[in-house]
């Protein structure tokens, strides 16, 4: 390409780039003085530079290159070397730029520049145009798009650097590249200046040290093809700007070296030395750029000025500098000279003649000088400047020109006399000729080359015989022969070959090495280029060579201490043409084929033979052809490499492959010998040198691998590296994997790496080996790598993780996957390896998970992290293998799922910092746990570099990590979801724990003692070492107890130190049971071994060991619990034995008792007893005899021991905990028969005696009782007593009687201010109710305390009540009491109680009143109303009164039961509760219509029509139907009058509201009230008249007009009452027994009273009574209750639905029948002194409102008449009007006669058993005293006077 057609004009681009350079800040100088060329500020560059990969890619390569390559120096992303000439477009004008921009605008390359990946890009505003061609607008100097379609974007550079994007693409690229170059160069120079002065610059600046800078250099090389002149001009400008001064310090070091280091040197020398180091760094960077860009000089002819400038700079550096050897920078000065020599070598490739002329001119000048040492050194330096000159083989003209130059130098070589110059020239010739010899073929016939060889050969051969020239001339003679013609070579080489063979044994190692190198280059020419001679001649030559190199009978090779690869190459050269000779005569002899190998005597010879065989086989298999000639120079000074890395095959060499490549005759013999060699090496230098051996601890590898061992270790390395390429014949696959696994812990680091690499290759390339390798490697780690070698263990588990990752990666590769499915044809020949004897893939993966579980026991962070990674890798691998198992879930998934719950379980044990970390973490998984490094997670273990420590305290109960492990291995978690992994974990964890026990064992066993006690008199290990591993051992045994299987009938071998067999077959895996018994999987480790190890340690005197074992056994899984108990049985019997013994034995036994009871407590706390199938007797449902015996024995022992010893206190405390947790672990159903009643009774009173003040109700006195808080022990005893009491039905029926002591005890608990005790009280009440449903006394007491107790106690009782009734349909006959107490607590001022009451009210409503109820709406229509829960949902925040009103409206049939209940409760309730009761009683009285059928209907005035509207909640003018009966009237008036007399003074307002509500709701109520007041006042005027007056006042305030009317009517009557009142003991406490004269008053006679039992007059119409019976429920159809059905239609006979509680079997039915009498009225005797048992109604209630009765169709014949019947009969008889009672016509009365029939209310159901009548007898006279009849006028006058 012509230089006149550069990308941009050279001069213009150079000027533009120079402007950039001028605008850059100066390079930071480390010296104090400023540089001479200008001030250099200390402007450190902080900008983030662009990636050179991105620059090069965006500069020259439109498409990203492939990510990797095969050869060394491979092209990285975007280096642009593959870009062809056609890919690079020249742009000479703006029009062409626009054209390109429009072409790329269509999306040819839409990817953004790669530079965005490594630095921030600031887009220029000009690039935001609509199209890519916007940059080509008028007035613009360049396009906004680069030629490859990317936008011009300004990178981040220092503030002084500004690169305008409005440039041509070429200028933009060059400016950007140079800006990046200057910034990076400045950084690199700053880095070099900060390094020590003696550090070589090559280590910091040469190629390969900085990949980013290397990519930038490649980018320069790419763009140099287009703009090399401008690039060089700019580079020279940058170089000149640095002010480099070459040789400025030489004068300082020409003096005596001793003076240069003296005081005179001073700080100036140091400053100048640093300045020179900076200059050298600039030179280094400058040379690197020159070497890269000058490779493009061939496409830029001309530019002689630039070439001369480069030559001037280079040859200036070739000048000899005196004193350089004394200069601290001397080494770097020589490096720079070599770099310029490399520059000249590159320059000579395109400008050879110019370089030649300059070199010859320089040489001529030096030759003209006077001979001296300086002249000699100068010529030598000049010659070294040409050592990188390379002969161009094509075209031939260049080849000839090069050798003409060589002839000139040869002539000088012949003429010069100076030995040093001759040797320098010889060295130069060798450097130039070796590459020629490697490639020369027909060129040897070129005359100039022939002449050159002939010119020098004879002279040099003569010189080679002289000692002074031999070292320098031998390589030259070799090179001359190598480039000579065939005839010349064959005729002359034998003489020189003899010289080489002779000098192989030279004592000078340099000479012997030179002779060997000459030999193998000559042999290459002889075998490869010339292709040998005749067979006999060739055999003779080769035999002489082989005998010289490998003497017969010798153990070594000749020469000694030589790199073995030279011998390998010699064999390879021979095998290339004479394969059989190489194998049989050389390799077989070296490998001792056919000879028995017991001891390795010739390690070097064997290594050479093995390597040679592999190299030859590899070459044949890869069909590489002739091997290349060996070369000497590997790396150039710049860092560029000339050596191509050879890639060898790893694929297994099989018999088929050997047959195909022609080595089948040698292959089997080599494999057998290889097997013998490996076994011998393993036995001698493998096992003995493992780092796990105790004798190798604290020994350095250098100490062990010295002398004779070193070559044998080298042989071992070679053999291990040969696997899997070569598989030994005679060694099974298992043995091979085991051996490679052992070698991963060998003392030799290289051998460790090779062994693991072989294992990894087996996994990567051979599917048949994969699971065997993983299986064997895990087995090796478990058996060989102990926990006392943490570094080895860490390395081992990391290697295991890498093997699993390699396996998965191999599967993801499509080729490997295909190979995995298609069996390798060669693997079939390896039947002797016995592969696949260890289970399938799934079994191996489960084994890896089991091993990872064991790794989690570690106290260190590293193994835990790797364990999590292994679990995750196994999951991915199983997915790749399609081995997902529905039974065995991935362990990592299960543990991640439960991680949050596990951490929450130990949260209370964490310090505040860790709690904050937990709270701040959104998702807690196993990885998060493994990353925790706080000491609380590591059991106190701290690891800081080499310092290891453990916390001083070993609080086993607070060991967080052990509890975390147990939290995962639970039923329903890992134990159930991952059974196979758990089975595999068992033998592993036991083996680890058993091997570590020797370290942590506090005492040696004392065989002389019969007792199992272990003494702590002698310490076996240093305490520090033991402490480090104690926590780890504890974690091991804890996990072992969690995963130990149950012992089955399978015969096993009991062993103390088992040799585990990790699953020998697929059958060893877990079966697919689901939560059932986990069978013993068949490992050689019996679970009995674990118990034999741990159980005796329960008596260990070392507290930390004893506590660790207790913790572990306390975590035993439920499968193995019965096995553990078998081992513990002798200890249990000993602990409950109460025989007399001395103090020493007693203390030991007490220690055993403490340990055992703590153990049982932990097992109970874990819930293991409840989960185990062998704890409860299947016949009785009770605990097995062994457990009951222990509990009984412990009880008897503790009852008899009264000492205040601390040990006894511990036993008592833990025993309390044990019993409580044992009972708590079982379900409520199981507790019914869990413990016999006698044992429960004994335990309860035992615990009660320990409860301090809480034992007082049972007669136990606390010695120091007072106001003190109960101790922890007393609290434990209290909890235990509660647990025993609530473990089934009461053990003593008298305990729950009405006067039982248990109620005092519960009161004491509820009265406690301790929240725990208060909660315990509630729980106890709940369970008492649950387990004793047939004992009504408990429920009665709970309900009663809700009214009578203090608010705290009442709240506790109500909460317990709510818990019971919310959980299920509790069998209860007290539903009205429950409804009432719930309604009471809806008025609680405490929000929690209020909410609980509301919720319970909804539950009870759904349970008791599940159907809808008709209700009159606001409008004049009937609507269907929902039940209470729907109303509550919209009235949740309504008041208690509102809720009571809703209940009264929805369920008026509850009126009398509720009134009766409230009347009873108000007597005993505390004052605040009494006020609430009276308050919400009001709405129920709105339903009550007092019944007196003899009273005529009230006048139909508007006021009476509005009574209900004003007070009942309805609308004005709307009359509702009432509810009432004679019995209800008697009860309401009796109870209300009693409340007035008893509580009127305390609650006057509430009582007045009640009377007002009763008299205003219904018109006749007032009349009935007044009549009742007349009767009751007449019975005891002195006592009751004040209260009657008070009632009149209340009534008068409510209805004054109506009251006056009634009283005035009575005052107008001048006769006495027409009946005799008798005092009775049964409610209503009076009876009308006889009739007097008839009354003239039209209203009839008397108020209601109780009729005589013997009288059988007809009853009132529609009176309903209830009775208890068993039977089916008869539900009425929904239509019966519809508002659309008339009253008459709804009056048909039927029954109301009753909802009965589950379990009671008793239902209450309110029935109406035309032929059956319902009940007697109020005949139940009431004991006024004590609470009646029937005061609470049964737990049943009709679901709908009571129907009206059809008066025309229903006849009710009552067996008994009430007082109203008597009065009505009297009135009717006297007035001549037939008596109408309840719709029945009296005998002898005509149905058709006209009669008055007052409207009757709905029949009102009475409470069951008659309800509660208040004991009004307190105010009445004795029944024996007669009652005087009062005149009605006088009776009316008294109230009137009081009201006035």
TrEMBL record:
Residues 85-98 have a biased composition (Acidic residues). Residues 99-113 have a biased composition (Polar residues). Residues 48-146, 248-268, 1635-1702 are annotated as: Disordered. Residues 48-59 have a biased composition (Low complexity). Residues 72-84, 251-262, 1672-1681 have a biased composition (Basic and acidic residues). InterPro entries: ARM-type_fold (IPR016024), Cell_morpho_N (IPR025614), Furry/Tao3/Mor2 (IPR039867), MOR2-PAG1_mid (IPR029473). One of its GO terms (cellular component) is site of polarized growth. GO terms for biological process: cell morphogenesis; neuron projection development. Residues 276-807 form the Cell morphogenesis protein N-terminal domain. Residues 1090-1256, 1340-1490, 1529-1611 form the Cell morphogenesis central region domain. Residues 129-139 have a biased composition (Gly residues). This is Protein furry. It comes from Cherax quadricarinatus.
């Amino acid at each position: 390409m012509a230089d006149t057609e550069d990308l941009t004009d050279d001069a213009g681009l150079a000027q533009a780039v120079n402007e950039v350079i001028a605008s850059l800040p100066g390079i930071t100088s480390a010296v104090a003085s400023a540089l001479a060329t200008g001030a250099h500020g200390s402007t450190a560059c902080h900008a983030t530079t662009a990636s050179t990969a991105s620059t090069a890619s965006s500069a020259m390569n439109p498409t990203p290159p492939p990510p990797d390559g095969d050869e060394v120096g491979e092209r990285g992303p975007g280096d642009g070397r593959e870009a062809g000439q056609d890919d690079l477009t020249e742009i000479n004008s703006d029009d062409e730029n626009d054209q390109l921009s429009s072409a790329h605008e269509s999306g040819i390359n839409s990817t953004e520049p790669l530079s965005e990946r490594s630095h921030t890009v600031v887009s220029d505003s000009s690039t935001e145009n609509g199209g890519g061609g916007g940059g080509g607008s008028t007035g613009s100097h360049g396009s906004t798009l680069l030629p490859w379609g990317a936008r011009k974007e300004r990178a981040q550079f220092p503030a002084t650097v500004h690169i305008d994007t409005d440039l041509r693409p070429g200028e933009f690229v060059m400016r950007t590249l140079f800006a990046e170059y200057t910034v990076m160069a400045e950084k690199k120079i700053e880095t070099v200046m900060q390094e020590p002065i003696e550090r070589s610059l090559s280590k910091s600046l040469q190629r390969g040290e900085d990949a980013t800078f290397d990519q930038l250099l490649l980018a320069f090389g790419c763009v140099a093809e287009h703009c090399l002149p401008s690039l060089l001009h700019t580079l020279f400008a940058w170089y000149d700007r640095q002010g480099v001064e070459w040789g400025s310090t030489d004068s300082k070091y020409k003096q005596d070296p001793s003076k240069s280091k003296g005081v005179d040197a001073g700080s100036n020398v140091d400053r100048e030395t640093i300045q020179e180091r900076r200059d050298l760094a600039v030179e280094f960077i400058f040379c690197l750029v020159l070497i890269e860009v000058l490779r493009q000089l061939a496409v830029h002819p001309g530019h002689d000025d630039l070439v001369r400038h480069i030559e001037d700079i280079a040859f200036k550096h070739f000048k000899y500098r005196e004193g350089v050897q004394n200069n601290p920078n001397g080494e770097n000065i020589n490096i720079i000279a070599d770099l310029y020599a490399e520059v000249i070598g590159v320059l000579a490739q395109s400008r050879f003649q110019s370089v030649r002329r300059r070199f010859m001119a320089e040489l001529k000048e030096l030759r003209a000088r006077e001979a001296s040492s300086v002249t000699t050194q100068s010529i030598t330096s000049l010659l070294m400047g040409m050592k990188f000159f390379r002969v161009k083989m094509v075209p031939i003209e260049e080849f000839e020109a090069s050798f003409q130059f060589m002839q000139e130098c040869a002539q000088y070589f012949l003429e010069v006399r100076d030995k040093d110059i001759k040797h320098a020239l010889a060295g130069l010739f060798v450097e130039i000729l070796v590459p020629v010899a490697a490639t020369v073929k027909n060129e040897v016939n070129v005359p100039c080359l022939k002449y050159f060889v002939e010119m020098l050969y004879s002279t040099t051969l003569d010189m080679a015989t002289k000692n002074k020239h031999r070292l320098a001339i031998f390589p030259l003679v070799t090179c001359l022969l190598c480039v000579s013609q065939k005839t010349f070579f064959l005729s002359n080489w034998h003489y020189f070959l003899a010289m080489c063979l002779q000098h192989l044994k030279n004592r000078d190692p340099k000479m012997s090495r030179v002779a060997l190198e000459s030999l193998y280059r000559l042999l290459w020419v002889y075998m490869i280029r010339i292709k040998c001679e005749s067979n006999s001649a060739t055999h003779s030559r080769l035999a002489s060579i082989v005998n010289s190199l490998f003497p017969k009978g010798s153990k070594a090779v000749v020469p000694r201490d030589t790199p073995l690869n030279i011998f390998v190459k010699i064999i390879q050269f021979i095998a290339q043409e004479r394969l059989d000779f190489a194998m049989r005569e050389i390799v077989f002899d070296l490998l001792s084929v056919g000879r028995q190998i017991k001891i390795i005597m010739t390690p070097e010879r064997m290594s050479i033979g093995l390597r040679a065989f592999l190299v030859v086989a590899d070459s044949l298999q890869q069909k590489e052809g002739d091997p290349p000639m060996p070369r000497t120079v590997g790396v150039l000074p710049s860092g560029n490499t000339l050596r191509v890395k050879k890639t060898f095959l790893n694929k297994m060499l099989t018999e088929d492959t050997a047959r195909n490549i022609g080595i089948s005759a040698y292959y089997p013999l080599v494999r057998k010998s290889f097997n013998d060699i490996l076994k011998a090496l393993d036995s001698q230098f493998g096992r003995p040198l493992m780092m796990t051996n105790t004798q190798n601890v604290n020994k350095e590898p250098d100490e062990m691998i010295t002398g004779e061992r070193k070559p044998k270790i080298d042989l071992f390395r070679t053999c291990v590296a040969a696997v899997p390429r070569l598989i030994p014949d005679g060694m099974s696959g298992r043995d091979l994997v085991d051996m490679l696994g052992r070698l991963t812990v060998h003392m030799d680091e290289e051998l460790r790496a090779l062994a693991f690499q072989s294992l990894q290759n087996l996994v990567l390339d051979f599917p048949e080996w994969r699971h065997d390798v993983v299986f064997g490697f895990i087995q090796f780690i478990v058996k060989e790598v102990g926990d006392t070698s943490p570094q080895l263990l860490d390395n081992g588990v990391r290697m295991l993780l890498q093997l699993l990752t390699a396996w998965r990666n191999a599967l993801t590769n499509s080729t490997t996957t295909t190979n995995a499915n298609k069996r390798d044809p060669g693997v079939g020949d390896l039947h002797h390896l016995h592969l696949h004897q260890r289970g399938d893939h799934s079994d191996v993966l489960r084994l890896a998970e089991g091993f990872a579980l064991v790794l989690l026991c570690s106290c260190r962070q590293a193994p835990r992290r790797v364990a999590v990674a292994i679990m995750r890798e196994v999951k991915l691998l199983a997915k790749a293998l399609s081995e997902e198992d529905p039974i065995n879930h991935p362990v990592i998934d299960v543990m991640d799922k439960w991680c949050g719950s596990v951490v929450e379980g130990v949260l209370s044990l964490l310090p505040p910092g860790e709690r904050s970390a937990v709270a701040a973490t959104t998702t807690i998984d196993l990885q998060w746990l493994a990353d925790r490094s706080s000491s609380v997670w590591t059991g106190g273990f701290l690891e800081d570099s080499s310092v290891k420590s453990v916390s001083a305290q070993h609080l086993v109960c607070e060991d967080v990590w052990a509890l975390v492990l147990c939290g995962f291995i639970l039923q329903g978690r890992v134990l159930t979801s991952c059974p196979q992994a758990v089975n595999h974990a068992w033998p592993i964890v036991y083996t680890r724990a058993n091997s570590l026990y020797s370290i942590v064992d506090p005492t040696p066993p004392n065989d002389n003692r019969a007792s199992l006690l272990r003494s702590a008199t002698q310490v076996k290990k240093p305490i520090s070492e033991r402490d480090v591993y104690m926590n780890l051992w504890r974690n091991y045994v804890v996990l072992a107890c969690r995963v130990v299987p149950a012992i089955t009938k399978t015969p096993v071998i009991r062993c103390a130190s088992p040799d585990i067999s990790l699953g020998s077959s697929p059958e060893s895996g877990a079966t697919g049971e689901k939560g059932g018994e986990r069978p013993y999987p068949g490992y050689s480790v019996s679970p009995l071994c674990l118990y034999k190890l741990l159980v005796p340690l329960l008596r260990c005197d070392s507290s930390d060991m004893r506590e660790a074992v207790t913790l572990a056994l306390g975590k035993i899984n439920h499968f193995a619990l019965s096995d553990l108990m078998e081992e513990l049985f002798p200890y249990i019997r000993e602990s409950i034995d109460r025989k007399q013994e001395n103090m020493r034995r007693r203390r030991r036994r007490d220690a055993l008792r403490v340990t055992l009871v703590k153990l049982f407590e932990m097992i109970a706390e874990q819930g293991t007893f409840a989960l185990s199938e062998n704890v409860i007797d299947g016949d009785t449902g009770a605990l097995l005899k062994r457990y009951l015996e222990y509990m009984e024995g412990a009880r008897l022992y503790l009852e008899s021991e009264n000492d205040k010893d601390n040990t006894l206190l511990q036993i008592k405390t833990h025993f309390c905990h044990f019993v409580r947790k044992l009972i708590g672990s079982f379900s409520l159903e199981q507790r019914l028969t869990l413990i016999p009643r006698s044992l429960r009774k004994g335990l309860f009173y035992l615990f009660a005696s320990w409860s301090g003040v809480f034992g007082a109700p049972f007669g136990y006195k606390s010695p120091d009782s007072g106001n003190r808080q109960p101790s922890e022990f007393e609290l434990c005893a209290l909890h235990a007593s509660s647990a025993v009491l609530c473990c089934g039905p009461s053990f003593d029926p008298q305990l729950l009687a009405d006067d039982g002591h248990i109620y005092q005890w519960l009161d004491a608990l509820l009265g406690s201010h301790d929240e725990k005790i208060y909660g315990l009280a509630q729980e106890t009440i709940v369970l008492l109710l649950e387990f004793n449903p047939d004992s009504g006394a408990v429920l009665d007491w709970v309900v009663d305390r809700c009214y009578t107790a203090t608010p705290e106690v009442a709240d506790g009782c109500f909460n317990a009540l709510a818990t019971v009734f919310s959980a299920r349909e509790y069998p209860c006959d007290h539903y009205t009491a429950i409804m009432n107490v719930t309604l009471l607590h809806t008025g609680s001022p405490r929000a929690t109680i209020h909410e609980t009451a509301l919720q319970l009210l909804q539950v009870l409503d759904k349970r008791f009143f599940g159907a809808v109820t008709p209700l009159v709406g606001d409008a004049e229509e009937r609507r269907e109303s929902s039940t209470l829960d729907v109303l509550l949902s919209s009235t949740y925040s309504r008041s208690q009164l509102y809720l009571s009103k809703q209940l009264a409206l929805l369920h008026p049939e509850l009126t009398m039961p509720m009134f009766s209940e409230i009347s009873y409760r108000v007597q005993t309730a505390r004052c605040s509760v009494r006020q609430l009761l009276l308050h919400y009683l009001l709405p129920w009285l709105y339903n009550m219509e007092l019944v007196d059928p003899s009273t005529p209907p009230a006048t139909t005035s508007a006021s009476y029509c509005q009574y209900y509207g004003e007070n009942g909640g309805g609308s004005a003018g709307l009359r509702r139907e009432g509810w009432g009966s004679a019995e209800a009237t008697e009860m309401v008036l009796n109870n209300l009058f009693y409340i007035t007399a008893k509580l009127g003074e305390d609650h006057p307002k509430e009582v007045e509201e009640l009377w007002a509500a009763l008299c205003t709701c219904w018109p006749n109520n007032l009349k009935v009230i007044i009549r009742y007041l007349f009767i009751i006042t007449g019975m005891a005027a002195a006592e009751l008249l004040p209260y009657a007056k008070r009632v009149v006042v209340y009534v008068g305030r409510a209805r004054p007009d109506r009251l006056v009317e009634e009283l005035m009517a009575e005052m107008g009557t001048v006769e006495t009452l027409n009946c005799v009142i008798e005092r009775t003991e049964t409610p209503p406490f009076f009876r009308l027994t006889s009739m007097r004269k008839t009354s003239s008053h039209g209203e009839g006679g008397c108020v209601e009273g109780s009729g005589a039992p013997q009288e059988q007059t007809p009853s009132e119409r529609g009176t309903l009574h209830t009775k208890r019976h068993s039977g089916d429920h008869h539900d009425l159809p929904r239509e019966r209750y519809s508002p659309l059905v008339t009253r008459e239609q709804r009056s048909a006979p039927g029954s109301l639905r009753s909802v009965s509680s589950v379990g009671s079997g008793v239902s209450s039915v309110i029935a109406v029948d035309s032929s059956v009498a319902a009940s007697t009225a109020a005949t139940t005797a009431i004991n006024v002194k004590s609470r009646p048992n029937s005061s609470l109604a049964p737990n049943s209630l009709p679901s709908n409102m009571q129907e009206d009765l059809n008066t025309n169709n229903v006849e009710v014949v009552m067996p008994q008449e009430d007082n109203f019947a008597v009065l009505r009969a009297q009135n009717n008889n006297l007035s001549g009007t037939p008596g109408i009672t309840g719709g029945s016509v009296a005998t002898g009365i005509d149905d058709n006669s006209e009669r008055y029939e007052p409207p009757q209310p709905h029949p009102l159901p009475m409470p069951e058993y008659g309800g509660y009548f208040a004991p009004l007898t307190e105010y009445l006279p004795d029944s024996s005293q007669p009652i005087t009849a009062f005149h009605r006028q006088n009776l009316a006058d008294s109230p009137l006077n009081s009201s006035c």
